């Protein structure tokens, strides 16, 4: 059956796309392994892991089975006053996989919602501690945490995507930009400036939120994990909760199971999503400590004030539980290290091209930053012609391939990026 792309163009509103002058949209009729089959039968390698979630690839037999088996038993029940085995099993896995203090698991619908949950937890915690004035968030520039209102308030206010809403968002404290480079030494002068800002506002600050090691949609920026140690120290010193947004970095993407392991720092609240369900179902989780959970429930409400309709959805929990088990069975770390070696070998030399400003690799993340903004429509067609699906943004041509992508397919991806760099430099 041919996809009615004309109806799509006229009626379906895609993310970050104008209805006046919409970006071209490719019809996809099937997906298997690391490949998408387009409406015209061309195949392209999904170098984006479908927005970083499909770590096992598409149409995975084990995940298909988990989904079908669960659907035959129970597709959905409310999580209020009811529990079920898929949620319990997933909760056990998450508690066992994450650092020991994180004992409480709140299952949510999506990454943005998990951030909303984390921010609300922090505010309600301080209310429970009889410090209701501590409601403001603190973060660094170039962050991205989602598109819902609370999440937008902690995204970069200048370089982010949400400046239009600045006048109606809560006013978070933005410290400035972290220097890029995994091995870049800590700038002590900058660190002192950051700490002073926190000290000056400590009486009103509820939580510090940050994406550990890699800032995703805010610019695909990689920074020294030592900054996380400093931030943990500041939070402890000035009585502020620490939230790690690992929606994009969690479950092996950076070469560690969780990016927090690069610094061996544990947050008070942890947000997870994207790869959690292997890209099959929308699902996220917010984990926190017993101490924070107790503080939340000591507030006047007596309970945490959040309850999504599809919280703990059995289908999503069942497939996520199987996906997490599959990570271990398929030796995710070996695959990620293999991908990292390949990307470093193939991509780092592209810095020599005149049109390329920077190239960076960490784990199964490869970024080629161009000197000038990239035209999305032109670039998409360029890569499709070379058998690759890449969705650029801003000046960035970046990839986050599924962990099962073999070396031959990685070469196709990196060769396409090389061709783009050469074309733009000609």
Automatic annotation (TrEMBL):
Obligatory cofactor(s): pyridoxal 5'-phosphate
Any single GO BP term: biotin biosynthetic process
Source species: Reinekea blandensis MED297
GO CC annotations on file: cytoplasm
Enzyme class, UniProt record, top EC level: transferase
NCBIfam families in alphabetical order: bioA, PRK05964.1, PRK07986.1
Keyword Nucleus part of the UniProt annotation: no
Pathway annotation from the record: Cofactor biosynthesis; biotin biosynthesis; 7,8-diaminononanoate from 8-amino-7-oxononanoate (SAM route): step 1/1
Protein name according to UniProt: Adenosylmethionine-8-amino-7-oxononanoate aminotransferase
Localization in the cell: Cytoplasm
């Amino acid at each position: 059956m041919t996809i009615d792309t004309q109806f799509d163009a006229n009626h379906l509103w895609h993310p970050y796309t104008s209805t006046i002058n919409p970006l071209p949209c490719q019809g996809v009729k099937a997906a298997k392994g690391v490949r998408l089959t387009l409406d015209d039968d061309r195949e392209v390698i999904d170098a984006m892991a479908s927005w970083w979630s499909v770590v096992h690839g598409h149409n995975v037999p084990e995940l298909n089975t988990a989904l079908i088996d669960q659907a035959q038993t129970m597709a959905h029940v409310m999580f209020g006053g009811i529990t079920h085995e898929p949620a319990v099993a997933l909760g056990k896995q998450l508690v066992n996989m994450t650092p020991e203090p994180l004992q409480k698991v709140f299952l949510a619908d999506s990454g943005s919602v998990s951030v909303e949950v984390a921010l609300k937890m922090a505010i309600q915690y301080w209310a429970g501690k009889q410090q209701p004035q501590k409601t403001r968030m603190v973060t660094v520039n170039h962050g991205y945490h989602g598109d819902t209102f609370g999440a937008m308030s902690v995204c970069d206010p200048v370089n982010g995507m949400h400046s239009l809403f600045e006048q109606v968002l809560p006013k978070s404290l933005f410290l400035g930009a972290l220097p890029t480079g995994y091995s870049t030494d800590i700038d002590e002068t900058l660190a002192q400036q950051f700490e002073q800002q926190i000290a000056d506002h400590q009486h009103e600050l509820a939580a510090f939120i940050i994406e550990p090691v890699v800032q995703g949609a805010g610019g695909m920026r990689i920074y020294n994990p030592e900054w996380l140690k400093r931030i943990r120290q500041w939070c402890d010193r000035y009585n502020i909760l620490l939230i790690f947004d690992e929606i994009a970095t969690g479950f092996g993407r950076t070469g560690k199971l969780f990016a927090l392991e690069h610094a061996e720092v544990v947050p008070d609240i942890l947000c997870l999503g994207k790869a959690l369900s292997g890209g099959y179902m929308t699902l996220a989780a917010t984990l926190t400590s017993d101490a924070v959970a107790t503080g939340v429930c000591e507030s006047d409400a007596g309970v945490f004030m959040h309850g999504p309709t599809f919280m703990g959805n059995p289908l999503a929990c069942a497939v996520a539980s199987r996906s997490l088990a599959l990570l271990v069975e398929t030796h995710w770390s070996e695959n990620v290290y293999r991908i990292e070696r390949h990307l470093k070998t193939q991509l780092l030399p592209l810095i020599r091209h005149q049109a390329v400003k920077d190239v960076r690799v960490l784990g199964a993340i490869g970024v080629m930053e161009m000197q000038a903004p990239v035209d999305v429509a032109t670039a998409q067609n360029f890569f499709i012609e070379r058998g690759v699906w890449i969705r650029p943004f801003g000046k960035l041509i970046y990839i986050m391939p599924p962990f099962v992508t073999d070396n031959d397919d990685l070469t196709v991806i990196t060769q396409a990026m090389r061709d783009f760099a050469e074309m733009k430099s000609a």
